[in-house]
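Page 37, top half.
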Amino acid sequence: EEPLVESGGGLVQPGGSLKLSCAASGFQIRDVYMSWVRSAPGKQPQWVAGMSSDGGTVYYTESVKGRFIISREESNEIVSLQMNDLKPEDSAVYYCNANVGGINYWGQGTQVTVAS
């Protein structure tokens, strides 16, 4: 079983919303720092959002502040990324990341395309 599995990507018009989910297995999300990273063709991968292991602190890259919200459901071991007011420049493959005992785990990614 893969440790991280993302879902929720798709095609959306500018100004629309999507919610990405990352299902974790093999560890508990309350014990680790979780984050979302995106990768677009021709661009360097960009860290987008993160949540501390205790869930008390969240972090966002400047370009998504006020539009994206990272959250988690400990009972279901899911970390989500609510994305609002999407822009074409948000188009990318979004990856979930977990640092477990110093080892970085990545999901397979989910494609987000923002276009008219």
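Page 37, bottom half:
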Amino acid sequence: QVQLVESGGGLAQPGGSLRLSCAASGVTFGNYVMTWARQAPGKGLEWVSEISSDGREAYYGNSVKGRFTISRDNARSSAYLQMNNLKPEDTAVYYCNVQQYWGQGTQVTVSS
């Protein structure tokens, strides 16, 4: 059974940082592209970032480019999203995704 578990969310002040983690099990993690997406209150799902299976290529949405960094550790079946210079508009539930599988999400709230 495939499981993706996000962690690391919480409350941050504008300009602050958080690091999200996604731990995968039941899947050969290193074989697949991994994606982070988010859903803000009252809005649809927004693609945030994606990393290739070997970690060599990363892509970012325009709203987070230059502030967020995606990474992965295939030996640990884990992926990460380092979020710097957070803004109130980054407030959302963040999800990790591999193939058709999604985690339960972790809440990120950016507020002073």
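Margin note: The chain has a mean pLDDT of 97.
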